[in-house]
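Technical appendix A lists one of the benchmark inputs used to test multi-chain prediction within the project. The record comprises two sequence entries:
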Amino acid sequence: SQKIEQNSEALNIQEGKTATLTCNYTNYSPAYLQWYRQDPGRGPVFLLLIRENEKEKRKERLKVTFDTTLKQSLFHITASQPADSATYLCALPPSGSARQLTFGSGTQLTVLP
Amino acid sequence: DTGVSQDPRHKITKRGQNVTFRCDPISEHNRLYWYRQTLGQGPEFLTYFQNEAQLEKSRLLSDRFSAERPKGSFSTLEIQRTEQGDSAMYLCASSSDRGLESNQPQHFGDGTRLSIL
């Protein structure tokens, strides 16, 4: 069956360091992958989309990689700040659907001052 | 604010009652999605509309759940005969339709939190 796995535990890092979050998937061949940020009590907010033919995408302090051979995406936040503390979700379109997204369970990131 | 809005933000009801939630998407978006999210999990897809047509439904969507988007603008999600397991955050999202592109980001509302007593 299709599965998405993110870092299973919460991630704590020191302010100024680079946070690296992992998204692994099995039994998928997605055309793209998206990353979202979610704060407590709020809906997810779109951050980045990376297509299967792109190895890397950057936006300000954010960087996403997409390795379709390893079936893995890495999400990096450089020069992390306490305001980056949130849950980060990866999402892919499931096989057979062009519209809906299947989300991982998320990684809770805490940036310590 | 022209984001996705959901109403109500919180709903507490007794088991067996019917509840209805409303979603107003971003005005120029013709795609609308409903998801359900429980604590510690990511959102789970429930259903998708392209304009007023309901094109995809999850197997999670039992016959107690019904969604409508009568004029292709706002949408409602109704749960009949609520059960304790229906307690969750119900999220609505919308996206634009640029030609045949299917990978547009989804814009989420802040959800309706349903608690079944």
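The two ends of chain B are 33 Å apart (CA to CA). Residues 89 and 113 of chain B are 4 Å apart (CA to CA). Comparable benchmark entries are summarised in Table A2.
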